[in-house]
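Amino Acid Chain and Its Fold in Token Form
===========================================
Purpose: to set a sequence beside its fold so the mapping can be learned.
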Amino acid sequence: MQTYYDCVPSGTYDVVTAETAARQWAPNGNRITTTQSCPAVGGGSLCVVWQKPLVGAEVGCGVWCYAGPYAGTLSVTQTYACPCPAALGVDWD
């Protein structure tokens, strides 16, 4: 588990807070998209997709959902596959 501090009230989910959380997870990573729809079939939530840098030993991808029913839910992998979260939950912010 990784923590960080910002001045935004807890439970505030938007594209800015999602990108802030992603940058804390992988500061040198790359934003793939800010508008991925999750779940992949049926949509309903908007998410930021962030990958760790393509160089180095660590690989990974995270999906931070900030709007819709999956808001506040996170999915992280140790690959460059970027799946939507598998279940609802509050995992970040």
Notes: Strands lie at 30-38, 45-51, 61-67, 74-77.
